[in-house]
Amino acid sequence: MGAFQLRDDEGATNKREVRNASCAEVADALAVVTAIALHADADGGDGAPSVAPRQPEPAPAPAEGTTPAATSPATGAVPTPPDDRLRGSTRIFPPRTDSVAVRAGTLRFDLQRSATVYAGASGGMIPSVILPRADLSLLAAHFVTTPEGEPRISGLVLKLRLGALGAGTYRSPDTKTDLSAFTFGIDLCQSPLYDSKGLVLLFCGGFGSGLMMLKTNALDGTAIQSKKVGFGEATLSAEAEFYVGGGFHLGARVGGGFTVGQVTAERADGSRIFASSPWSWYATLGVGFRF
Q1: Helix runs in the chain, H state only
Q2: Is omega for the bond preceding 40 within 30 degrees of 0, making it cis?
Q3: What is d(CA 197, CA 202) in angstroms, rounded to the nearest whole number?
Q4: Under 8 Å between Cβ of 168 and 130
Q5: What is the pTM of this model?
Q6: Which residue ranges of the chain lie beneath pLDDT 70?
Q7: Which of 21, 79, 180, 249 could hold 149 in an S-S bridge, CB 3.0 to 4.6 Å?
Q8: Within 13 A of 137's CA, how many CA atoms are on the CB side?
């Protein structure tokens, strides 16, 4: 690396820094910057260096048949993180406006995404019934990389989830009720550790809704009731993803929710068989890929 700056009694120009793969390439780039600065001083007529900032001209194109040299930050290119690996974390209380001082160069924006299929169990909503659960989780994290090559997560991590519950059965002394449900929701997640080729930790809060299907029969098979009931839910969850290579990762997730709206089943005479609880929990394992 090398640096160039003009100083006189009135002040100094902005320092120009050049980084490149070899000393020869750095020296060539500094020579161009110096020549431009001295030429501008000569045109001024007094021979004194000007303190106004000057922009260096683009480096000349490489000769035919040669390999282009790595571009330095002075020419506007952003260093690429090794293997495109992105690391960052979110803030618990992100500021509305955030300012970061960087040197001249190019900002790089990355959208880190993942899709994960989870399978496990859910309970608590229907008394004494554990329902099998399957979820599809779609996650997006927005990264900004500074000219110095330092990635940062911009804002929170956003997650969209689709789920299916069932089939399960609630049994009473004189009836049985078959249950299944579909759910969807949106989560906003804090990430104390996000490594696109390592471990990702997420703590999420979200909201969503679902549709429960119930079919109640007498013990002799006589149909009593068939209905669909909608409900809302607010959820809290903790999630971990571990990268295993080739774009794939393994995941684990646990969480709980508060249900808005009660799910009930009734007998033919109108008496209630059961009513859902407002509290529920789930635990799942999964596999997915990042892209």
Answers
A1: 23-44
A2: no
A3: 15
A4: yes
A5: 0.69
A6: 40-83
A7: 79
A8: 34
